[in-house]
Amino acid sequence: MRRVSVFPLFLLLISCSVIDIPYPAYDGEGRSRDELALVRGEYYYRKDWLNSYVDAVRVQRVDQRVIENSRAWDEVLMQPGMREIEVYYSWDLGARIGLAPAIANYASNSENLSRTLRFNAEAGKEYAIKAAPVFSASPGDLTTLSYVDFWIEDSRGRVVLTREEGRFRGER
Fold first, then answer.
1. 3-class SS at 97?
2. Which end of the chain, N or C, is less packed with Cβ atoms under 10 Å?
3. Of 109, 110, 153, 147, nearest to 130 (Cα)?
4. DSSP state of 122
5. Positive or negative torsion for Cα 22, 25, 29, 35
6. Which residues face 115 on adjacent strands?
7. Are 52 and 45 in contact (CB under 8 A)?
8. At a CB cut-off of 8 Å and minimum separation 6, what does 108 contact?
């Protein structure tokens, strides 16, 4: 009898858990993780006088495959080989909801906040896309953001695409 009373509690706990599934940015049927490369954008924590924010690097496109609702996906699975990945720096604006969609759209389409990165992805490996915002004044003042540089590291921390290769090349 005791097993029967615990079972509903177990089902409730399982239904409350969140499963993060990577976005499949490849054609064809599902494949094992060993056959694919996984890429994820890094998260960055920012704090002002009252609030904390979590900014992130988002993947917008892998080769010709556009990722719909890119803000919803933390990880992307792709075929191994030379890949072209379009990424952007996504700002968390906290309670400023009215501005959030406009700034997210600006970030994803602005060449100084987004970049197309090219690197050789290996099957079975995981990669992190990292970013460094560059400000013309105080880093606490988001309005002084000049551009964002990107680079890619593998799961061992080895740089596979350098900051120089992912650097914004606009006017400075």
1. coil
2. N
3. 153
4. P
5. negative
6. 87
7. yes
8. 58, 60, 70, 88, 90, 114
Exposed e or buried b per residue across 112-131, where buried means at least 16 C-beta atoms within 10 angstroms of its C-beta: bbbbebebebeeebbbbbbb
DSSP 43-57: EEEEE-SS-EEEEEE
What is the token pair recorded at 166?
Answer: 């992912």
Q: Which two tokens stand for residue 101?
A: 């969609």
| HSE-CB for 83 with a 13 A CA cutoff | 27
pLDDT tens column, 58-80:
999 999 999 988 888 999 999 99
Q: Using one digit for the tens of pLDDT, what is the confidence trace for 99-156?
A: 555 555 555 556 668 899 999 999 999 999 999 888 787 766 666 778 889 999 999 9
